[in-house]
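In keeping with the milestone schedule agreed at the kick-off meeting, the structural modelling team has produced records for the first pair of proteins. Each record is given below as a sequence line and a structure-token line. The laboratory manager (R.T.) confirmed that both were archived under the project's standard naming scheme.
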Amino acid sequence: MSTWSVPSEFTVGLLATTDWGASGSRRRGHGAADLSQGIHSQQDLTRALVSICGLGQFELRVNGSNVSDAVMEPSWTNYTKNCHYVTTT
């Protein structure tokens, strides 16, 4: 027997394939795609989560600023078998 642990929380990715999506593709000169998705909130946000899957690597920017110092995310995978995604706040 042990004492109860303190309450905690966790987040999982979106479960339905229809929940995933982006739009607004344009090509840059070096061949990388530039995808953008506008999000507008009527309320003041205190926290937001972004789950992103880039086939290859990606850089996530919000209002022009990189949200992470990580580079070359997600890790390499065999895209015919699975695709990794990253969730960031």
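The second protein of the pair:
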Amino acid sequence: MARPIVTLVLGACLAGCSGVPFLVPDTRTPADHAREVEPKCKDFGEAAAAPMLAPSAIDTVEPAYSYVQSGPADRQAHLRGARIRIKPLPGFSKETIARSVECHEARVLLGQGTARPDDPYVMPDHWLDIDVESEGDGFAVLVRTDEMDTARESLARAQRYARSASAR
């Protein structure tokens, strides 16, 4: 008699919980991510992306944070990487910047492109999430990861890359 009750309770939970997303770790490798993006990159070559990938295009670099609930009325900041503010670039939209940077990352990870020293849009052996926001007359490229050490290194690389423009 106990077995049908357990089955009934388990079935009810599964049916009732079906709308709740289960957090399954992403097991794709950086190369897997790059191969998924690669077919979208036909019209987004390195030459077209060069103006936004140049250190001179960067206005400022700041930490990129995500905020998580840490109490009933409290939020805690978690470093996720770099927020790279780039200057306004004629003819570029946030969508073209995002695709160009993501394609650059994919090409480098697949060995089809070259990263500059401290390239903030590429991290060897890691896939970085790239998002772009429009801000006033410029853009912010968010380069993020869920791994704390990678987030710190991503921010440090972006800061060094931006400084390399002023050294020239």
